[in-house]
Amino acid sequence: xxxxxxxxxxxxxxxxxxxxxxxxxxxxxxxxxxxxxxxxxxxxxxxxxxxxxxxxxxxxxxxxxxxxxxxxxxxxxxxxxxxxxxxxxxxxxxxxxxxxxxxxxxxxxxxxxxxxxxxxxxxxxxxxxxxxxxxxxxxxxxxxxxxxxxxxxxxxxxxxxxxxxxxxxxxxxxxxxxxxxxxxxxxxxxxxxxxxxxxxxxxxxxxxxxxxxxxxxxxxxxxxxxxxxxxxxxxxxxxxxxxxxxxxxxxxxxxxxxxxxxxxxxxxxxxxxxxxxxxxxxxxxxxxxxxxxxxxxxxxxxxxxxxxxxxxxxxxxxxxxxxxxxxxxxxxxxxxxxxxxxxxxxxxxxxxxxxxxxxxxxxxxxxxxxxxxxxxxxxxxxxxxxxxxxxxxxxxxxxxxxxxxxxxxxxxxxxxxxxxxxxxxxxxxxxxxxxxxxxxxxxxxxxxxxxxxxxxxxxxxxxxxxxxxxxxxxxxxxxxxxxxxxxxxxxxxxxxxxxxxxxxxxxxxxxxxxxxxxxxxxxxxxxxxxxxxxxxxxxxxxxxxxxxxxxxxxxxxxxxxxxxxxxxxxxxxxxxxxxxxxxxxxxxxxxxxxxxxxxxxxxxxxxxxxxxxxxxxxxxxxxxxxxxxxxxxxxxxxxxxxxxxxxxxxxxxxxxxxxxxxxxxxxxxxxxxxxxxxxxxxxxxxxxxxxxxxxxxxxxxxxxxxxxxxxxx
Length: 713
Hints:
By secondary structure, the protein is of the alpha+beta class. It contains 13 helices and 39 strands.
């Protein structure tokens, strides 16, 4: 099928509707000289520090220069923050309150967007600035990305922890900090009328216009090295963090009320036959440490649910594209390693994002075209790897801003010498039920390399474990008092791979000694049998530099779906060496946000684009070459849309972060940080894209309930 035919092909599902894009420029936010100042900063190599007079030293100096004459050529550099490079997503929107949060270096700026649908941010200064404190361990760890600003934030997310929303950040020095957004909103409500006073900045020596207590940390811990991946689990009330120690740390807050002294006789030894059950009771706070010694650095992490929706596994992707899964609770369980894609062994796969999709997150469709978003004769079929390459469908996305010249006659992402066939129709058999054609019990072979990693139960850490309290943990129970006191260390540390528990360290030296312990497992290759349990619970979206893969682990053989996101012209309209260096490491699909209400996954790349991806499922599975075709995904749109990018993004800059949340009802009139009243009809969502030159772009999206059409306004 040639390009002209593709252009005429009508998508069989309801296409997206495109409306106006709203852009707030750096000049709108910081003054008329902001764009020039941003370009001057960009002229310096990102590996070197800026000159002192062009650097930004923090919000204290910013507030002092707000009322100065704009003719001062240096005042703009003091009030316009610099942005850290080569990090994860650094912006977020609250779903409970009208708050927009952005990480500038080691600070969190909190804005209250005004006006629907423009989502205008306040001029020059935020409504609140949070300065996350530094642990004593962090001062010993130091910075990995930037030794000059070791406490700079690597990742910022907002999520539900039980019934309360939290904002969580992790830093280059290993610190992990969380706040309740309710406390942030309340503080802004109490201090929104500043008159001529400085805005309140937590942790800074500035006069506060009110005696209202500033937000305190719900969590303030350190994981030993630069921290990157973050995930929050609502039902199980967990926070997971991956770090460059090749570990995942899960912070499990105590949920049960304090137990009596008589009950403190469980797990009195370092090894206990029932330690997994005791940890699940959540009678105290737990730091659960899972070592992935053979992994590389892990930029993102997610939870995997059991049948009841509670967190059972934690999953991470490393920078070589390998995916790791580990049981959170049960001791002595092997690690599960899913190797990088088998399509092209000649290339390096750079893994950046992962999300586990439960069955309810898929949109049900009737045909393969609706499933994958392109005609069947445009799909590359790789029978050996059981992979369907849908990359040619990118040319059929309306107003795709990515360069499409490389899409014709086809992408080379899967042309690795393996035999492939163009067109899916010839491979499809008649519709089949799951039990048809003897697919029950067959295991996936060849498509995914699966490994188990096990660890010897022999311990490596000296010392005695403390007593373990018994108790009951109900999902609706209140947090224990200890969970509300961040100044106290977590009560216990649990290493599920060895089944060992220890008292949480009381001193910095003890914590550093604990963090320095080697806990590396030994690898053992196995078949897909051990993955059957996970195959029934979820599918996985795995994101690389510019590729997306949907796969199932184990179970009945099922076709994987693969798409290579076409590269844009990173030279933009500048084409200078500095612009090239700015985008040198920008190809990373690392900003992943799941919007369950819309059955949508929003995926941002530092190159500046954001994919809107819909997971799909056939109402009746089809059989193709002894494997099922049932689950897939289609790309609804790529933002910013081409006309908007051509009009407004003339000087290409990397993406600092993407944020998604429901549209506030009533706009700014709802109050500073307050939650509006929900309207009737399908709920609209706002997507805000924050660029490295301080431009902020906004769209509105929703999915019509009857037609399931995804609309952009």
